[in-house]
Amino acid sequence: MSILRTTAMALVLAAPSLSPALAADPELTVFDWAGFEEPVIYQKYIDKHGQGPTFAFYGDDDEAYQKIASGFRADVAHPCSQMVSKYRDAGLIEPWDESRIPAVADIDPRFLDSEVFRDDQGLWYIPADFGSTAVAYNTETVPEEDVSTLQIFVNPAYQGRTSLPDSADDVWALGYLATGVTDWTDVSDEQFQAAADWLRKAHQNVAVYWADPAEEAQLMASGAVDVAWSWNDVLPLLEAEGYPIGFQRTATEGSSTFFCGFVNLKNGPGSEDKAYDFINAWLDPGSAIGLLDTIGYGLTNTKGLETVADDPRVVHGLAEIDAPVLAQVPNDPEQRERQLIEFEKIKAGY
Questions:
Q1: CA–CA separation, 32 vs 41, rounded Å?
Q2: Where is 119: in which H helix or E strand?
Q3: Residue 217 contacts residue 240 (beta carbons within 8 Å)
Q4: In contact, 96 and 282? CB cutoff 8 Å
Q5: Domains with residue ranges and CATH for the chain
Q6: Does the structure show a pLDDT above 80 at 251?
Q7: Could you report the per-residue pLDDT of 35-65, keeping only the tens digit for each?
C-alpha cells in the first residue's frame, strides 16, 4: 500500500455516503476496515464465486458497533478483540459453526484464550489478523536513547513533536505501560488514575491525534512530528517513501499488541454459506503474504504465518520480543467505557 492508496482509503472513511463502497457479490456483505477489501487476502473466495463480496467500511471499532446496533445490516464484521463482548452483550452476533471452518484448528491458541471468544455455547469470534503498537520515530532527528523509554512522550524536548492515535484503546495501552501496568484486565483505581495523569502530561506534547495510518504517515513524512505511538502498518508506507523510520518495540516499559477478527452478525441479509467461504478463504495459509503486503499485519493461522516468518516486516514488527507486552485482549466493558470518557476529557484539555 502506498501513501497515495492509503490516502484514498482515508477519503472513503471520511465519506459515510460511500458505504457500501465496493459493490460486488450481492449475497455477502462484509463490514470492514478500509484496505481489507484487497482480493489477495481472500483470493479463494473469488476463485470459487467469480467476484469478491460487497464491502461496507468504517473508521473505528466504536463507530462500527454503533452502526450495527442502530440497524445497519451486514453478514460479517471485523472488530478487534476488545469489542467482542460488547457485540455479544447486545445480542448482535451468533456463534460460528466451527466444524465448517477447518483452519480454526491452526489459529495460534493465544488468540482464542478467552471465554468471550469461545465457550460452551460455541465459537463467537474468529481471530484473523494481528499487529503491534509501539514507538515510530524519525531516526535522523530522534536519538535511539530517547526512544529507549516511553517517557519520550512526556519529555519536554518533544513538545509539539509527538502524535498519538485517536483511539482510546491504543492510548490507554500506552498510558498503562508507561506507568508500569502490562495487564489491563485487572486495573485498580489507583493504576487508572496514574495512567490518566500520565496521559495528561503526554497530551502537552501532542501536535495532533492521528485518525488513521495515512494521516500518521503524512504527519511524519512532512516533518510535522518526529515521534508517534503507532501501529506497525505505517512502517512499509514510510519505508516506501524513503523516510528514515524506526520502530521501537523494546522500550524499557514495553509495547502493545492487538488482534482483530470476524463475528457472524445475526439476521445477515446474505448467504450464510458464502460467509463461511469468505472466512475459509481469509484463513487460508496462502493469504498470509497478501495480508502482509497490503496491510502489514500477521495472519493468525500459524501455518500461514510460517510462510512469511523470515520477512523483515514480520521480524521487526510482529515477532515476539524480549520486553513487556500489553496485549489488547477483552477487558471489562465498564472499564473500557470509563477509559473512553476519560480520553475525551484528556483530548479536550481537562
A1: 13
A2: strand 118-119
A3: no
A4: no
A5: 27-130+258-318 (3.40.190.10), 132-257+324-348 (3.40.190.10)
A6: yes
A7: 899 999 999 999 999 999 999 999 889 899 9
d(CA 139, CA 153): 16
pTM of the model: 0.89
- Residue 5: CB partners within 8 Å, gap ≥ 6? none
| Segment 137-195, tens digit of pLDDT | 999 999 999 999 999 999 999 999 999 999 999 999 999 999 999 999 999 999 999 99
Across the range 100-114, mean pLDDT stands at: 96
For the chain, the residue count is 350
CA-CA distance, 28 to 252, in Å (whole number)?
A: 46
Bridge partners (DSSP) listed for residue 257: 132, 327
Query: What is the dihedral sign for C-alpha 68, 74, 76, 79?
Result: negative
In 3-state terms the chain splits into helix, strand, coil percentages (rounded to 5) of: 45, 20, 35
DSSP state of 297: P
| Distance from chain centroid for Cα 104 | 20
Q: Are 40 and 22 contacting, i.e. CB atoms less than 8 angstroms apart? A: no
Give which of 68, 60, 77, 70 is closest to 14, Cα–Cα. Answer: 60
Q: Please, are residues 98 and 123 in contact by the beta-carbon 8 Å criterion?
A: yes
As separate numbers, helices (DSSP H) first and strands (DSSP E) second, the chain gives: 13, 14
Q: Contact at 8 Å (CB) between 9 and 34?
A: yes
C-alpha cell belonging to residue 152: 519520550
Residue 39: asked if its preceding bond is cis (omega within 30°), the reply is no
- What pLDDT is stored for residue 23 in this prediction? 58
Q: Do residues 25 and 51 lie in contact, with contact meaning Cβ atoms separated by under 8 Å?
A: yes
pLDDT at residue 322, as a whole number: 94
Sign of CA dihedral 82, 13, 128, 263: positive
Residue type, 121: Q
